[in-house]
Amino acid sequence: MSRINDGAGPSTRRHGNNRPPPKTRTGVTGRTYGYTKLCDVKVRTTVNVYAAVKFFKPPFRSRGTDYCMVVRLVDPSLDNLDDGLKCLFFAKEQSILPQIHSVGDIIRIHRLKVDNFRDEPQGNKGPGFSCLVFDGRPGATVDPRSDSQNFTFGPEDEEKVLELRDWVALTPELNVSNCELTTLADAEEGQYFDLFCQIVSMAKVDATCVLFQVWDGTIPTEPFRKADLEGLTLDRKADLAQKVKGHLVDVFIFDDHVPTALRFKPGDFVRICNLHVAKYKPPDDAVRPSGQLVEFVVHKGTSFGRGLTPLSSDHPNLMDMKNAMKQVIESSTTAEEATSEQDDDACGPVKRKKTGESSAESVGSLVEGDSNVQQGTSMVFVGDSNMEEIDKIVQQGDSIVQGNNVSKERDSNLQKGNSKKKGKSSTVPEEGSFASSSNSTNRRCLLETGTVLTGHHHIKVTPIHAVLTHSTPFKFRLKAQLVDYSPRDITEFCNLFCYTCNYCIKIPPSLKQKVCHKEGSEPSDSSFPCLQCKRRQSSDGNAESAVVPNMKYIYIVKLTLDDGTGLLEVHMWKEHAEVFFKDLPPCNLYQHQEDRQVLSDYMQQLCPGAGSQTAAPWLECCIMSYTVKDSGPALYQIFDTTLALEAA
Questions:
Q1: Domains in the chain: how many in total?
Q2: Same structural domain for residues 290 and 436?
């Protein structure tokens, strides 16, 4: 055994954000330490103590430039654990404060200065202060956590650590291994709780906020707020994010916790102390959801131990959580392997082809505003390959996916949570039986819903909450209610589209006032040449010889669906919208009063409005998710869905 420095003098080594290299257990000869029981600690003394952690606040910024940490220590000598010794430690850097990870950790302190604060003893750093922290779990290794590589640790120290571990294991207030943890599935609005989880992705939103995307193997029963990732640089564990996307929950970390949050990295396990399940209040200028959402927030301050604590991957509280995580990942992997071997009629992800184009507009942004159309000069153009890609994604095969492999148990949890909501029923209706019928050239199924599917009836329903968090591209089967649609003016449901260059505009004023001469068909003077193609031909010098194609009428409608687990905006256009509207062909609705009335009757039945005495019917839909840019937001489109209603 060798003599080494035990940290009695001030350290000249400065530590940054990186942890110091592993320590080597060492001993000392010719020098022993006496340790004071906490019941015998007196003010205005300096003592050495062995104790267990009953409570701690993770490091936080003090009012000055230092970091501060609050700890309450207990040991077997105390008759009442509420009489533990409160300690207040300050340091220039977080890394040189006691590295406490959990209640029940064992701590050894040399040269603890005890002062009087408000008539109670309080521990502070004395000259030559040194500290070792040990995992308090029985059976864990006796490896100390310390900011210094130099410390003393002999057989007597190991014996004291093991004795305290045995005591902690028999003390319910300290034995966190036996505590039942609150999971995301247990979280309820207004609750504060400690969350044990794994970070999958993270991003710095601004100087006052950091976003964590975390999971714990469960899904909240409360519909919750998702962060707008546009403009954020997301650091993520990509392989894990793909497998567990349907389980990710956004946690917003504010103010004095930002520096601590930025010390973590994707893949780390963390204990988020005093996490608030807050009622989400959107900004005044934001679109308000029809249903109430919650958000997971770490507020400023350190009340009730609020903060972030790193966890080792073998922490006892992670055992059940990691088992649940393992099942989710195995389920995801199995499903991916199975779907890759099935044909088009099986459940599986859509095979998306890559294109050379780097940018495009979403379907919802294809149409210019009225002012631009009236001028006849401003237009939106979408690159040919990208528009073709969107069509290929939607049209490819008949496969449709059940969602993000959400387990039956967690689907049940979602429905249980939704059943607590007041007002309209928010529980996704149970699947019914199907009867076959014929409509136009396709066989269609009839069900007591406002819409039915033209296929894929063997696929189970996916809640919107799971759709929103799933990877793209994918196909789903939904049951939801229509709470809004756009445009609200039925005459604007149809637009002009060029199939040659994918150019789309609203119907110009020159065509709005004309009268149809033959019901059910376009009048001969209603054709409208594509200005984009004409400009291209002019620029190529072929303006006189080339034939300018006429634009065709197509539907472009956006629906907002709500199933009680979330809101989903979906687009309908082109042939998929025609199928939805029972093969009613698109036309100039400013001219065709009869068709306009039919569409108006349909939409009135699907979305009666808040003042109506009639409840909105449930809609059964096939939904396709896709992106037009690799890093762009997910978009959604209806396909293989038709109305089961009759016009009034």
A1: 3
A2: no
